[in-house]
Write a structure and sequence with these properties.
InterPro entries: DMSO/NO3_reduct_chaperone, NO3_reductase_chaperone_NarJ, TorD-like_sf. This protein has helices spanning 26-39, 45-57, 63-78, 81-93, 102-107, 112-126, 140-149, 151-164, 166-178, 184-192, 199-211. The chain is mainly α and 240 residues long. It has one domain (26-215).
């Protein structure tokens, strides 16, 4: 009997061991975060052209960070554009465990998500910046860009946001690794720039990998005016 009509089971992520941080000065961290922000965006022609700049800029970084960023940059510049774009959408827009929206991992599809997004907006304002509305404010590349381009205050505030949502970043790393995604090295490079994972964070990561974020399926209608984000804002998708 053929069972070809049945859907193939998804690849289950497993919690990975934390990566040991790599010492970086402020400039090196800014270069690494800006490089990751560029490489994690949708690989249109502009982003793929910028990847070549990332490859050059990352040359002076410590090898563990440099090799991950330059390897992904080369994959983006040399790869087939249509295939890369299709894989990006299939990964980040259609798989909830690969969401690049940091508050989603902690708040999920609950009423707490709106309040979490407001806190991101307030954090940007404290650094002297306003979000444009093109993405939800907890979008990881936006936080990384704040770290890289926001000056001392921006770097400090972005660092606090990244640390507060470290469990979500680790879940994203685990999910991308399970999918053997070409974007895994960019998340690894970010993790290498952050503080070590403590025991409490490791426990939350294990829980999230196993169960996923909380859900009430209430949507985000209470946040902002017209901000909808990408398809992976969590609505009507399985935890897969």
């Amino acid at each position: 009997m053929s069972l070809a009509f049945l859907p193939r089971p998804g690849v289950r992520a497993k919690r990975l061991d934390p990566l040991a941080p790599v010492p970086l000065d402020d400039r090196g961290r800014a270069v690494a975060h800006m490089g990751a922000a560029v490489l994690l965006r949708y690989p249109d022609d502009e982003a793929r052209a910028a990847a070549a700049t990332v490859r050059d800029a990352a040359a002076g970084l410590p090898a563990p960070v440099r090799d991950r960023l330059t390897g992904l940059a080369t994959a983006l510049t040399d790869g087939d554009p249509a295939a890369l774009q299709a894989e990006y959408v299939a990964t980040f827009d259609l798989k909830r465990r690969c969401a690049m929206y940091l508050s989603y991992y902690a708040a999920g599809d609950t009423r707490k998500r709106g309040a979490a997004l407001v806190r991101f907006v307030e954090a940007y304002r404290a650094a002297g910046f306003e979000t444009t509305g093109d993405e939800l404010p907890d979008y990881l590349p936006t936080v990384l860009e704040l770290s890289a381009r926001g000056g001392p205050d921006g770097a400090r505030i972005a660092g606090a946001l990244l640390s507060a949502h470290r469990d979500g970043i680790e879940v994203l790393r685990s999910a991308l690794a399970a999918q053997r995604s070409p974007w895994t090295p960019a998340i690894e490079a970010v993790c290498l720039t952050l503080s070590p994972v403590d025991a409490a964070t490791a426990e939350r990561v294990a829980d999230l990998v196993a169960a996923g974020p909380p859900a009430e399926l209430v949507g985000l209608s209470g946040y902002g005016s017209g901000d909808t984000g990408h398809a992976n804002d969590g609505k009507d998708l399985p935890w897969a």
